[in-house]
Specification:
The protein is an alpha/beta fold. It has helices at residues 18-32, 51-65, 83-95, 115-124, 147-156, 171-178, 197-205, 221-229, 235-257, and strands at 3-8, 34-39, 72-77, 101-104, 129-132, 162-165, 184-187, 210-211. The protein has one domain (3-257): Alpha-Beta Barrel (TIM Barrel). It is built from nine helices and eight strands. It has an eight-stranded parallel beta sheet. Helix 1 crosses helix 2 and helix 5 packs parallel to helix 6 (171-178). The radius of gyration is 17 Å and the shape is globular. The two termini are 16 Å apart. 51% of the residues are buried.
Length: 261
């Protein structure tokens, strides 16, 4: 079964340069049968990046992609605390560059008004927005979004393509928080491969609203694939999760850019 991975990073992968780290990711992906994957954020992260910092990280991803456009897609990393610079970076990397999505992490909770122009620009460009989300028992980081925050953002932007990164980590809560938000899709990656996550996601959201993501190199491809491959769901649901849903989500922007899926 052909696999597309929504969620990969250069961080956590051995290598001194973006090219070396990308070559390692390709080697690991080949071993696990992953034919396409999305990558974002640079070799060293920061919770609240300045415009210079997120531009540097995006440059590292652009360099990593430069030899692998047939295998990988890039999402631009921005910070809603710097709206003007974030919009310019979306234009540089998505409108005028090869990237196909937007990545948001923890600098500002995504229900904040600063997200509105960023999501509007992404929607205009047909770019999906992957928002990191988590429910942490000990309390979230400052500026860290929950799936409930994302559901609120979705209500303001009904045409946007929004992805609930990690399904909130505490996925029983996260999946319920986005269940009524029909335009929000869940992602499987980045938390321990506990039994029942994919089954609940398919039951509560429908298989068409679940995407496979690994969060490599923070997590291994193998442990994250096990969530889907070992799930008690029909084979056609696994096919949707492992490839077809992400391919469908990216097809409009790939077509606009003349990129063959």
């Amino acid at each position: 079964m052909e696999i597309w991975d929504l969620h990969c990073h250069l961080a956590g992968v051995p290598g001194r340069t973006p090219d070396e780290r990308m070559a390692r990711l390709i080697r690991y992906a080949d071993r696990m049968g992953i034919v396409r994957f999305c990558v974002y954020m640079g070799m060293n992260w920061s919770y609240d990046p300045s415009p210079d910092d997120f531009r540097r990280q995006n440059d590292e991803v652009l360099q990593a992609l430069s030899h692998w456009h047939d295998r990988a897609f890039g999402f631009v990393y921005v910070n809603p605390k710097h709206v003007k610079e974030s919009l310019a970076e979306i234009d540089r990397c998505v409108r005028n560059g090869p990237m196909v999505g937007v990545k948001l992490w923890v600098a500002r909770r995504c229900q904040a008004a600063e997200l509105d122009p960023i999501v509007a620009r992404a929607t205009e460009l047909k770019a999906p927005v992957l928002q990191h989300t988590w429910f942490k028992a000990g309390g979230n980081l400052p500026g860290e979004s929950t799936p409930t925050d994302l559901a609120e953002l979705a209500r303001r932007h009904p045409a946007a393509k929004l992805i609930c990164g990690h399904s909130g980590g505490d996925w029983p809560l996260g999946l319920r928080a986005i269940r009524a938000s029909a335009t929000v899709v869940a992602e499987t990656g980045g938390f321990d491969p506990t039994t029942g996550m994919v089954e609940m996601a398919v039951r509560e959201l429908g298989a068409e609203r679940v995407l496979f993501g690994s969060d490599a190199g923070s997590r291994s491809f193998g442990s994250q694939l096990a969530k889907v491959q070992g799930a008690d769901v029909p084979a056609d649901a696994k096919k949707l999760i492992l490839r077809d849903n992400l391919k469908r989500l990216l097809t409009p922007i790939l077509a606009a850019k003349g990129i063959k899926p």
